[in-house]
Amino acid sequence: MATSLFLSHVARPDLAFLAYVSVLSFLAYCLGRPLVKFAHALLYPDDQKASYQNSGLDQAEKGGLQKQDEMTDEDIFQLEKRAFFSKTWLFVCHRSRFDKPGDYHAFDIAGISFFVVLGKDLQLRAFHNICRHRAYTVVRKPCGTSTRFSCKYHGWQYDDEGRLVKAPKFDESPGFVPEDNGLFEVKLITTREGLVFANFDASTMKLPFNNVKSHVDLGSCSYVDGVSVTCATNWKDIANDFSSQCQWSQNPFGWFPRLRKQKMATLLGPLSMVKELRAGLWCTMTLLPRSPTEVVVRCDLYARKGYQVPARVVEQQKWMLEKELLNLSKPDTSDKSSRTPFAYQCGGRTIDLFAILAQHERNEKLAKKKLQPAIRITSSAEIDEEAAAICDAIDGMDETTSLEKCSKISSFPQTLEW
Question: Does the keyword section mention Iron-sulfur (predicted)?
């Protein structure tokens, strides 16, 4: 009799018991990793320090920033923009986000605006999101579908390969060459798994990591949904958390795998990671720094092909990701300081951010100017004056014209400042 009652209770679990289990699981999800990290820091206090010291650069080469105490957070952020964001391969998105020719997605990293578009030849290309005439944005939506991109000023129009196909009045000017005035292309690499990386430094061609395949295979996945979360903190605070998650995923305590199967998490460069949310469901998380105290985190969910993810599960995972990120940016968990150390694993070695900043600062001191790899030379001063004259003539036409007044900013600027 007692045995039958016990089996009946097990076969029909109490709803209150299930509720307790759900609450405890959620608390373990939110508090488990911080507690483990805290315990690890107490047991192994030198691990964090060692991760920055073993960067492959000797101390003399690493050095430090010149007059760091006198630099503001904005100064450091702009230096990071010139020395790091402009010269590093950064994960952008997955190939499955582009279904048909003309599909595009726009991004902004530390003020560098660009977009990725799928051409009619089914090739992905990336371009700086500025018109060659007045440096106005040609893509004004975060995503969409178009094979033509137009500037709002004088109707300059570009195709999906960045070529200038329409320039009203300018094509009548002697010496004007449309082929020389296409959109500035951004270096782009798509891996076999469909991972898309961009680099704003035209001289950099080598992808700095080649072991993504050994950890993550998103080639057989498709895009499900996504969410963007704005966090009031410095980007390095969340980037360090990404590194910690990936480190714990690959090197947890020895007894941990025996309790449960560890979910995979892997870095996709310095600003991104991909992690397993549940069986058949993955998420890429990408940092889009806006300022020293603000960063947007783009979270995109991908499912294994053939796996139908219930809408309830998708919304639940998005909610949990948002709560996790907002918790990281709380005042009690983040100092929001640009001086936060940051190092990440890449190709089997540790990359130290402050070593990169110090080296770039020394190069600028030797060059006696700011070195900005994302700047592009556009044209000569002579052509600039000619283009300005044409622009003024267009502005002086019939008042009924639909064209907007020109900006007084010099057309065809000699350099493009980000």
Answer: yes
Of the given ranges (40-49, 342-351, 354-363, 398-407), which has the lowest mean pLDDT? 398-407
Whether domain 215-340 has CATH 3.30.310: yes
Considering only CA atoms, which of 140, 145, 118 is closest in space to residue 130? Answer: 140
Rounded to an integer, the average pLDDT of 11-25 is: 60
SS3 248: helix
Tokens of 295: 């960063």
User: Domain locations in the chain?
Assistant: 215-340
Distance between CA 302 and CA 405 in Å, rounded? 45
The DSSP call for residue 403 is P
By the 8 A CB rule, do 124 and 196 touch? yes
The secondary element (H helix, E strand) that includes residue 32 is: helix 15-43
With H, G, I as helix, E, B as strand and everything else as coil, classify residue 74: helix
The tokens describing 368, both together, are: 């006696």
Return the bridge partners of 303, or none: 222, 281
Residue with tokens 């072991």: 211
What one-character-per-residue DSSP string does 140-156 give? -SSEEE-SEEE-TTT--
Contact 149, 164 (CB under 8 A): no
